[in-house]
Design goal:
By secondary structure, the protein is α+β, with helices and mostly antiparallel strands. The protein has two domains: about 140 residues, Arc Repressor Mutant, subunit A, CATH 1.10.10.10; about 160 residues, Bifunctional nuclease domain (Roll). The chain has a seven-stranded mixed beta sheet with strand order 3-2-1-7-4-5-6. Strand 4 and strand 5 form a beta hairpin. Helix 4 crosses helix 6, helix 7 crosses helix 12 and helix 8 crosses helix 9. The termini are far apart.
Length: about 300
């Protein structure tokens, strides 16, 4: 049926059979089962063939697709092995869905029937599997270095931290308590008591551990996600505001995923508000110092009354 392409399809059939071997109900039918997989993949390969005729109406002597050249074919086989390894590493449910849908060329309804689940569950498994395969197989750009350029309060009483990453600026909207904690760290405002972020660092030190970096690692539906990287490479999920407070308190490097920079930007309704902001980190630090001073005086008065 396939001529020179048969070896590639046979390899795919063997891969499908190997990954699905636990689903073979009757071992006596292994030969027919494997042949059925091969026939299914062969039919798909034939459908995907689109040979172009030469000017005289004959089939070309050489394949038009450059992937059929020796070097490209070797690279393609290497990539196929990487893909097979990546598929095999998926959780069983996701792996089975990928093999049946993408390699076995079955519709989602048939895949659901084979796996004893619903089509919506198959769709979810395929979505998660594709995301996992992309993360494993597509090279990711290294995280870029970033610094805190400013912390601002807008006329609408919103707080935003502005990160500088190369030529880009990344505004991240945060709450007032986190903004004050950042301002205290950046502008050396003395607080009367250690805050929760100082406690987190103390707990790490108590178990002989430390943080090595913080990363702004993801942006989904307008929400930023961060992680704190520990000294052994462990990643701990965190809100960007909390992670950045830790970075300032411990002198940690701040890193940003390039994909976040590409997708980021202040929400439309905040753009004008940010553009009109005039209160920067220095002014916020002055307000915080004044508040701390007033609080200390109030505490002193209460102590005298007693």
């Amino acid at each position: 049926m396939l001529g020179d392409q048969c070896a590639d399809v046979a390899q795919d059939a063997a891969l499908v059979a190997w990954l699905q071997l636990d689903r073979l109900r009757d071992p006596e039918r292994f030969g027919a089962w494997l042949a059925g997989i091969g026939r299914l993949l062969s039919l798909r390969a034939m459908r995907e063939r689109r040979p172009e005729l030469t000017k005289d109406g004959a089939l070309p002597d050489k394949a038009a697709d450059e992937r059929d050249e020796p070097v490209e074919r070797v690279l393609a086989r290497e990539r196929a092995r990487e893909l097979a390894t990546a598929i095999a590493s998926l959780p069983p449910g996701q792996r089975d869905a990928v093999v049946l849908f993408h390699l076995g060329d079955l519709p989602q309804a048939a895949v659901a029937d084979r796996l004893g689940t619903g089509p919506s569950a198959v769709s979810t498994r395929l979505h998660k599997a594709r995301a996992a395969l992309r993360a494993r197989l597509i090279p990711k750009e290294p995280f870029g270095h970033a610094t805190i350029r400013d912390i601002r309060r807008t006329p609408a009483n919103r707080y935003v931290i502005i990160l500088a990453a190369g030529d880009d600026e990344l505004p991240i909207w945060i709450g007032k308590p986190e903004a004050e904690a950042l301002v205290a760290g950046v502008r050396d405002v003395e607080l009367p008591r250690p805050n929760a972020h100082a406690l987190a660092l103390s707990l790490l030190a108590a178990v002989d551990r430390s943080a090595s970096a913080v990363r702004i690692c993801k942006l989904e539906v307008g929400i930023f996600y961060a992680e704190v990287v520990l000294d052994d490479g462990t990643k701990v999920d965190a809100r960007p505001s909390d992670a950045l407070v830790l970075a300032v308190a411990a002198g940690l490097p701040v890193e940003v995923d390039p994909a976040v920079l590409e997708a980021a930007g202040p929400p439309d309704e905040y753009t004008a508000d940010l553009a009109e902001s005039t209160v920067d980190a220095e002014q916020l630090a002055g307000e915080l110092r004044a508040h701390m001073s007033a609080l200390a005086e109030e505490i002193a008065r209460h102590a005298e009354d007693r």
